[in-house]
Each structure stands twice: as structure tokens, then as C-alpha cells.
Amino acid sequence: MNKKIFIADTVIGAFALDENGKIVESVLYPKDIGKTVEELLQLSEGKVNSVLNQLVETLKSKVDLSSTTLVIEDSSLARELTQRGVAVEVAVAPKQILEFRRLLPKISVELGLFKDEDEFREYLHTVSIELTRRKLRRYAQKRDLLAIQAIRAIDDIDKTLNLFATRLREWYSIHFPELDDISKEHEEYIKIVASLGFRDNMVPDSLVKIGISEGRAKRISEVAKKSIGADLSEMDMNIIQTVANIWLELYDLRQKLTDYIAQVMKEVAPNVTALVGPLLGARLLSLAGSLEELAKLPASTVQVLGAEKALFRALRTGGKPPKHGVIFQYPEIRKAPKWQRGKIARALATKLSIAARIDFFTGRYVGDELRSKLIERIEEIKKLYPKPPKRE
Amino acid sequence: MNKKIFIADTVIGAFALDENGKIVESVLYPKDIGKTVEELLQLSEGKVNSVLNQLVETLKSKVDLSSTTLVIEDSSLARELTQRGVAVEVAVAPKQILEFRRLLPKISVELGLFKDEDEFREYLHTVSIELTRRKLRRYAQKRDLLAIQAIRAIDDIDKTLNLFATRLREWYSIHFPELDDISKEHEEYIKIVASLGFRDNMVPDSLVKIGISEGRAKRISEVAKKSIGADLSEMDMNIIQTVANIWLELYDLRQKLTDYIAQVMKEVAPNVTALVGPLLGARLLSLAGSLEELAKLPASTVQVLGAEKALFRALRTGGKPPKHGVIFQYPEIRKAPKWQRGKIARALATKLSIAARIDFFTGRYVGDELRSKLIERIEEIKKLYPKPPKRE
Amino acid sequence: MSSLSVVRVYEHEKYRNVYIVELDDGSSRLATKNLVPGKKVYGEHLFRWENVEYREWNTYRSKLAAALAKGLKELPIVPGQRILYLGAGSGTTVSHISDIVGLKGAIYAVEFAPRVMRELIVVADERPNIIPILEDARMPQRYRMIVEEVDGLYADVAQPEQAAIVADNAEMFLKDKGWLLLAIKARSIDVTAEPSEIYRREIETLKSRGFDIVDIIHLEPFDKDHAMVYAIYNRK
Amino acid sequence: MSSLSVVRVYEHEKYRNVYIVELDDGSSRLATKNLVPGKKVYGEHLFRWENVEYREWNTYRSKLAAALAKGLKELPIVPGQRILYLGAGSGTTVSHISDIVGLKGAIYAVEFAPRVMRELIVVADERPNIIPILEDARMPQRYRMIVEEVDGLYADVAQPEQAAIVADNAEMFLKDKGWLLLAIKARSIDVTAEPSEIYRREIETLKSRGFDIVDIIHLEPFDKDHAMVYAIYNRK
């Protein structure tokens, strides 16, 4: 009778078990989320991945596979391996694999891969989310365009928030002109108006309740008492507060759009997002027009995206071309001394170009590598050009 | 013993009653709401008004007042009349007046003032509302400025509605590009998106439910079935619908502001409002800066308010000055042939100037007269200048 | 988020022209037929049922609704009546009385605070049976030119001498055997506890000035501070 | 308009880690302790009480909440458990189970519709104990690499062969004596009426594949189409 070897595919690697459930051979995934996700993706599509392949090859060299049957849970895998001349049997949840599945968290710790089971599950969580995002990409029809519309909507909302805040300040100043000076931040000002309304309601307690510090609450309440503003009717205040409330809703919507963009960008352009974050990433898509367009742009163009006006001016007048477009928002460029900015911008643009291409063509996640290489390059630039160039 | 005559002040006039409650004399108010309100305003301030005065004078000429005591319900009035040498007694609700009050609706019909009691109450309703508005004016601190802020907020909202509608059309077109052409009106388009979302939901029944005509509902539903747009996820649609809902809220707010302006303008500038309606009236206030400023402007300036740019250009270049500013929105100017417009604009500006002054200084309502005089003048212009002037 | 779905609507057994709206979450609400369909007055829910629109009558916002929810002996307001309403506020309760008395009725709505009157006038603008009066209820002679003889007097004036104010107004405008509904301050947490001294004095004043008390209802939990007094007026 | 005020919060007598929030309008709601304070998942109310934040567990939106409201024999979900959830949807019920099992527990949340998974992944992003799986519950071998042995199986899959799907998944992942909660279609308006043929057949399938039925609860009025089956698994 043939011996049986049971194949257990797990998130940490592929294991070969004997009939007693003892590990006879194993090949682990690298502890790299991007790579692990790629491997798991193949398995979930019923394809033999490199780790499983390696396991089978190793078994071949160590065990007499002609007198051994591999037991595997997925029939597609079984078919593929059979075609390679390996004897394979499909079984649902044989007790050896079942037991292994039960012990996996413990085993993964014993193998020294994680310090405890919590850490194992944390890793599983991250891998699963990335794996799911990769699978979702298959259904990602034009989702780059959705991110683009969302980032443009943010710009529209910013314009509106500003317009309405200015209007509200003028308007509410008829009743309480002194508040305009005391509360400079739009959000605070409008929250006060929306939740308290009449200046008579501005007692310290109520102000503190909506998040004003005690000191300022006291000050506002004192000024309110002595205000030279006019008395308003309920209906006057109601309409002002209705406008104030819609402002707060818009402000809230802005946050929702930001969260939304983060989710979409992680799915459609994970590598660009890893480099510059979802918002700047979406702005780049918006300027290029789509992920495809961005992927096709040369790095030199990516570098000046969003500075088209300055670029055309330079071309027309023969002046200096701009060193960076919207990527100036990248903190490492903004914070760098002037003479380093162009160089960092070039480095970032080069990496962005690569990231956009991988995002567009394969969607594989190599963001961590790209990012660490970029940071390396930036450190290098900082070391090589610590001082401004001499003028001649 | 002295005879007693009871004075009943009512919304239709002042009545003198004998001890049996029979009418011995009466002076009626003109059936003019503006004038009646002025008269009642004096009474409610405890002052003898012209009608009551006339009643007392008539009584003097017909009755021997030296042997008669007038019975009246208001002590301030009693004091004033006593100072004029009339014997007056104050009484609360003597049965003669009580009975008269009970019968007043019937009496007013018998006098031929109204065709039935319903009409009497309708009149009472209108008079009371106007009287209340006149009283509110006393408390009307800077309410002209509130109307100004509200009309400016409408302009801000209009800009935003346009901005967001354009964004939503671009955005939702990723999913259902064909709708952009079929539904040209922003409100309809956005209502469809906000309430139905996915194009799969666009079955005729649901479309009809939100107010689309049956024919168009059918058409939209057919086009939806064949759409070439991309499939979206729930979360993609959610965020689009959130933006669409805020658009509808803003649209609703616009209507609320319009209603609000109507209320405020009727109180602070009833005569200007009678001439050009609350919105155009508020725009004039907004351009002038306040009711006071508007009241102080010469008619020639009122005529070109809102056309400052064209005016300055004319002054600078020696060209033709503009014939009308924002009052071009007045239908009679907009609809008139070109050569009449300047003349109608002048007539309107003149009346507006008068209206603004009365509004600012007294608040008395003469709107109906002003309006009929204006219409008369416009008819005259139309008759005098039926044809375009000949060019020389 | 979730919108309320109507299961059925029927007229209140005890209070005519008041309706009960049953909702699909198992709760039910008081309501009146909306005199001005499509228009809300104070943010209340609107319900459609068999082509009629009803307005929720919020028991936490209207003391009269609270009195009905607590079982007031009867509702003396009927269609076509004329009513003098002292302390009309921004029109919450007034608007429901306006729904009940209908277009043949009239409510003389007295309110002295301009801040509040500006809202009431918007309601009155839409409802021809509400006649707004910006005057002090303590000086009824100031509105003698406007108010006719009335069938009932509703008062919610939060003044120390409310019984006297009510009696003065009744003397000038309320018909013999006319009704009074008075929302009176009666701060006593315990329903069974004795009412306060002031409250008792006010009731005495009413009696001495011709009112027969028919019913007194405490309004908790809807309103912890007030009771509703229902009385009938006897002219001397 | 009106915001809900909490009167008190206490743990459910029968269902541990489920709370009852009493509100000042006299009503009360089921709730769980919010694992991610400040964050809502499906528009539910958040309540604070004694410095803990609770999330309303809406009985109309979550079949499990409905089953508890209707008196399910017991709630087998306890802190620290691993659970396989088939048909996770956009995360309404998943999020409350996530609140209950806490950070030491794990929910393997299987959902096949990308449209819906995009919402679930947002919830999973914030909650480390939710492991999202974009796969077809009919093919458990496709997620054998992710799911470990679980203490319980929750299924709401709206598939014709739901009992078989559940049994296949149990065979691969559910421990001996592990629990099953299955939301099963049982369209019968009358609670006392006989269940439909299909429904009976599904129950039979469960029994024949090793499940002991402990309780079956109809979910009306919260959900008119479903019943909740509670069972215990016996491995052969």
C-alpha cells in the first residue's frame, strides 16, 4: 500500500505532513507581505505557486514519490500536480490537516516566526486585507477615475467652505461682531454659532462642552456680555444656524472623501500610495487624467505635473523650467533646503513613475521596497549637497 | 343723571353706542389696509387717531356732551380726551361694548363692507399681519443688514450648486454616462442619483415615484439597461450619493433663504418690496449697503446700481452711460423693447427712491399706491414711444 | 436615517379631530390633519394616509398634546370656533389648534416677544385662521380692536399673575359658558404630592372670578413643570 | 432633531457582553461596547455611559440582534473566540460580533460580492479582529490558507443549498462541539404556521451532517423572511 503525505497550505508556508500529522518537510513564505500576497493569490486561483512547487520538488528529492500519494484539499492544484506526474488525491479536511490547522497559530510561534499568537493573527489580518485588495483589483473598473473625481470634489468643497465661512462671519457679526476676532479658526467659529446661536447662550459651561478650552470659554462669554451687536429674532438666528450646520456637514463630508480616497487608492494604486500617501497620489492621477496616463508619463513630466503654467512660461520665455509641480506637497521636498529640492523631486518622480507602472500593469505591492530606496536616495542627496551651490 | 355713550373701537371703524347698545354714530376706516393699519397703530399706542377724533367731533355737534359721559375701554385714550374737555369714564367690557364685539362680524356684513363673515375675517387677518409687522419694525435692529447677508448667501449657494452639479455629472458619468444627456436639469439629475443610485435601480416605477414623467422614465430605464458605464461598488455609490444629498440640501436651503428674505423685506422695506418684490429689493439693499444708504441715494444712482463697472467705463471713455443696473431684472424693463427700457428704468428708479425713503423714515405702507402709479407711468411710456427712435 | 412608515391612521375615540398614527415600529403618535399640506411648522413629522396629510402632534413640544396623552377629560376645541390664545409662542400648539378649528374658525394669537412673533407671523402668513397680535396679554384693551367674542381661551403665559391675566381677558372677550385651558406652573416631581402654594392660589383666583374647574392634569413625563387646567366660564 | 439621552446602561441578564441602553424617551436598545470608540459602522447610534462607548445594535438591521430580541436560547459567542462568518455583507452584524469577541478573538469574514466587500474592508481596516476574505462560501478550499480552526460558524448566505454550504465549511474548519448560527429563509407570515418544505429540508440536511438543533427562532417583526437556527456540531 502507498504511503500518504498531506499537504497543508497556510499563510506562513506550505507543509508536508505524514500520516501521523508530523511535519516531514516545509517551505515558508518570506515574511514580506507583498510577496506572500502574490503567492497566496495564485493558490486561491487554484494555481501551484512557487513555494508549493519548491515543496513538491524537495519531496521528490527526499521521498520516493512513486510509492507515495500527496493528499491535497484543492482539486485544481491536484489536477496541475497530476499533470506533472505526481500521484495526487483530493480530500476534504483529512484529520491530519484539520489538526494542523488547529495548531497552526501555536506552530508558527514555535517556529520562531512570531513572538506570540496575537502577533500571528495581526500578520494574518494584514495579509488578508492586502490579499483582498489585490483580488478586488480584478473588479476595479475605472476606480482610478473615481479617486480623481473624489479629490476634485475635495477641492470644490474647500472653495465652498471658504466662501460660506466668510459669509457666516459677516452675517453673524451683525449679532456678535467681537467673536470674529476672538475665534480665528473657521471650524471653531462655526461650531460655536451652530450649537449656541445667540450670544446670551455663550456661558463658559456650554462653550467648554463643545470643546473650547476653559480660558477661552471664559473670555468669549465675557465679551459676549458686553457685545455691541444687534439683537436678532429666533427666525434670523435659525437661518444663520441652518447655514452654519450645512457648513459643518460639508466639513464632515470632506473627511469622508479623504477616507474614501485612502481606501480606493490602496486598491488601485497601492505603490504610488505607499510613496506619497493617498491624497497626493490622487492629485497626481487627477493631473495625469488616469492611472494609465500616469503610468505612461516619463518621470520628467511626473516631476512637473501641476506646474504646467510655469513650464509653458519657461518654454516660451526661455527661462528656468520649474523643478517640481504638485509633488512639492511631499514633506521631504517642502522641508528640504532650496538647492536640494530639485534633486529630491527628480528622485521621487523616478520612483513614482516605476510605482505607477507596477500599479497599472500588475498591481503587485512593492511599495515598502520603493519607499525605502527613495529614503536612501534622499539621505544620499542630503549628504552630497549639504550646502548651497556657489554662485559664479 | 348723565347719559352715557359707549365707544367701541373696531377694525372697521369707531362706533358710538347708546345705553341699549344701538349705534348712534360711527366713522369707518377707509377700506385701505395701509391706512387702517396706521390708524390702529395709534390706538394700540393709546393715542386718539383721526377716526376716533372725527367721531368725537361729530358727537359734539350732534349730542349735548356736557350732559353726556363717553365710556371707553382704554385709560390712555380717556386721559387724552379728558384733556380736551370731554367727560370720559373708563370701563372694562361694559355689556354694550361686549355685545357689539359679539355682533361685529355680522354688523360689518350688514353695513355692506363685506359679502360675508368669512370675508370679514380674511380682511382682519390681513390687517393684523400688517399691523404686527409695523409693530415689529420698532424692534427691527439692523434687519436690513440681515436681508443683505441672506441675498448674498443665495449668490454663494448658486455658485456652489453649479460647482457641485458639474462635479456630480462628471463623477456619476463613470457609472451611467448616458444620463448626462437625457437629464439636462440639475435638480432632476441629482434627485435621480440621490434617490436611486445604481442604474439597475432605474426602473420606470421608481423614476415615476420621484416625479419623472412616465415617458421619460421609460426612456431613462431603457438607456440604463444598455449603458456602457462602469460597475461601481456600494461604497463608491455611497459617497456620490452623499454629495448628491448635500446638493439637495443646499437647494432646499436656497428656498428657505428666499422665504426668509420675503419675511424680512416685508417688515423692513414693505414699499420697496411692493414695487419690485423681496429678492430684487434685497439686491438693491445689498448694492447700496443698507436701507439708509438706499434711501439717501438719488434716483439716478438707484437706476444704475449694480452697473458700476459699465458706469465707470462710460465716465472714463466718454461712452454712453448704462441705462439700468440690477433693476433690469424687473420684468417690465426686461420685456420692454430696447428704446423704452431707459425710460421705464428711470420711472422705476424714481418710485424706488420714494419707496426707500418712506421705508427708512416712517415705514408707512403706501406700496399699493406707488405700484399703481408706476404701472400708469409705464403704460404712458408704452403709448408715447411705441416705435424705435429714428436714427439721424 | 430610517424613515417612519405608517401602518394606519384613525380618529381618536375621545378627542374628535385628533388622530392616531400607528407606525411600523409599533409606536403611535398623536396628529392633526394638516391645514396646509406639505408645510411643517416646527420640524414635526408629516404622514400621508389615504390621500390626507397628517402632522405629528409632539407631546414633548406641545402642552396641549401632553394633556391629551395624559387623558384630559375632554377636548373642548371643535371646528369653527373662535379662540383667544395668550402666549402663542412661535406657533407649535397654535398650529394644531388651527388644524382643528379649520378655515371657518379663528385663533387670536397674542404674543409679546418680537423675537418669537417673527416666527409666529410666518405661520400666520400661511394659515388664514391665525390672527397674530403683538401685544402684552396683561393689557387686553390694547387689542380690543382686533379680537371678537371668543368661544374659548387658551393661555400659556408663564407670568406670576396668570390667573388674573386670564380672568381679565375672559371678562373682555370670552362668552358665557366658554372654555378655558390654562397651562399652569405646578413644579412638583411627585404626581401625588400636594401642589405648591402659588399654584393653589391661582386656582382660587380662577374660581373667584367665575371659572368652574372641570379637570386638572399633570403633564409629566412630557413636561415636568406644568399642569393643564380645564375650566368653564360663568359670566356674572 | 432631538438627540437621545441615556438614562442608564447595564449588561443583559441572559446574554453576556450584550448591553441594554435605556433612553429618556422610555425606550431601550440593545448595544455592544464599541471596540473602536468614535467610529460608526452603519449609521447606528453611539451612546456614552460611565466613560464607555456603546454602539446601538439595531434589531431591524442585524438578524442576530433580532434573534436576541426574540429570546434566542443563549448567545454562544464569547470573548476570545474564533469565528467563521459566511456572507459577511458590509459588516453590520460582523462589527457587533467583533465588539463581543474583542481583540483576542478573530472573525474570518467571507463575502463574495466585490461591491459589498469594498465596504467590509473599511470596517476590517479599523478592527484588527476582522479578517476579510473575498471568496465564494461554496468553495471553502479557496480560503483554507487563511482560516484556522474556529469555535463557531455564523452563516447568512441566502443560497439555495445553504445547509450543505454550512456543513462543508464546518467539516473543514469547525471544531467538535462548536456552535452554528444560521439565518435561514423561512417565509411564513404566521409564526405558528408550518415552515415551508425547503426550510424543512435544510434543517434535515443539517441534522444528517452532524448538527444538533438547539433552538429555532422566527425573526418577525424585525425580519419577516428569516428564522435563526442555533445548533451544535458533532464531528463523526
Can you walk through the features of this model?
The complex is a heterotetramer, with 2 copies of chain A (392 residues) and 2 copies of chain C (236 residues). Chain A has 18 helices and 5 strands. With 392 residues, chain A is α/β, with parallel strands linked by helices. In chain A, a hairpin with a 5-residue loop joins strand 2 (13-17) and strand 3. In chain A, helix 1 (33-44) crosses helix 5, helix 6 (143-172) packs across helix 8 (186-196) and helix 12 packs across helix 17 (338-361). The mean pLDDT of chain A is 91. Chain C has 2 domains: 6-57, Phosphorylase Kinase, domain 1 (2-Layer Sandwich), CATH 3.30.200.20; 64-233, Vaccinia Virus protein VP39 (Rossmann fold), CATH 3.40.50.150. Chain C has helices at 63-69, 92-101, 114-126, 162-173, 197-208, and strands at 6-11, 19-23, 28-33, 46-49, 52-56, 82-86, 106-110, 130-133, 150-155, 174-185, 211-218, 226-233. In chain C, strand 2 (19-23) and strand 3 (28-33) form a beta hairpin. Classes of the chains: A alpha/beta (392), C alpha/beta (236). The interface between B and D is small, with 7 and 8 residues. Chains C, D: S-adenosyl-L-methionine binds at residues 92-93, 111-112, 136-137, 156-159. Chains C, D: This is Fibrillarin-like rRNA/tRNA 2'-O-methyltransferase. Chains C, D: One of its GO terms (biological process) is box C/D sno(s)RNA 3'-end processing.
